[in-house]
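Write out this protein's structure.
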Amino acid sequence: MNYALRQSRMKTAVGDSGLDALVVSHPANVAYLTGFTGSNGQVVIHASDSTPDMLLTDRRYEGRTGDAGTLQVVFDTLTTVLENEHGTVGIEAQHVSWATVQRLKKDMAEVVTLRATSGMVEDFRQYKDADELAQLKAACDITVAALGHVFDTRLEGETEQAIAWRVQHTMRELGADGDAFAPIVATGVNGAIAHHSPSTLTVQRGTLLTIDCGARVNGYHADYTRTVAVGAAPPSKLANIHHLVRDAQHAATAQMVAGALVGDVDQAARHIIEQAGYGAFFVHGTGHGVGLEIHEAPLIGPKATARLAPAVTCTSEPGIYLPGVGGVRIEDTVVVTASGAPQILTEAPRDLVIV
């Protein structure tokens, strides 16, 4: 990862925003700029070249401060460091608590002016470089392989919890550093809960099983969902819903091209589902960005206004959820390309299969 280049771009953005300095405190943003992944880390980027930029942490992390690049590593508190600052300092408003801001304002009132900022690092993080795309591809390859392996094992009679553990164990066996998130495993009526937490409910023959999971590799997250039938074909209503979601997901993915409005991507899926009379049961957006966090910019929903650009990675994941009946979600991780057609990192069959 070219951390020095990222730090240089961030420095320019700080100056362009009218700030004298920016305090970066969100762990994913700190990792993006430095590779540092400890629980206590902050980056201070200055507009001026005459003031050194810093990575702040404590002595517990001495010797593992990532690739600091041009940053000066300082083992001290933010309050102490800010006492030597001047002018206007930006604070990541979405990631710093109200109590912390109030304390800094009290301590720093005569030294600096604090200004809330939003999305300054995240705006850069949307666009993945070649190294990032390689990590995402590795995470997606592991995820697809792991879920394929799980689908080849006995599922009928197993609990959702046991299957979730099997997914996690298999991803680690295949080389994942860990989970991108706790797997969602939902069978039968639980499929109607979009973010169901695996339970002791057992999988029955002829029911649908939805598994939403992702591996994490070097900090980068995969996101992948398939809904399958176990042992025998499901009731025709659920089979028809699966086909409908498959078509909606295909339509949304096809719209993930450079310059597309994310609202139009969402509408491509939502229109198909609404025309079939299930609009009220598609209860979330069509997708979201994915990278160092499982949910990041851009949001792909009916009210979102961003445009997609090359090297943006996002999910395509429409679903239909019928309370008391069941549900279907199909999801892929997708890269927007400069050449036109999107690149699907989780390529695998989307038709309804019986496992």
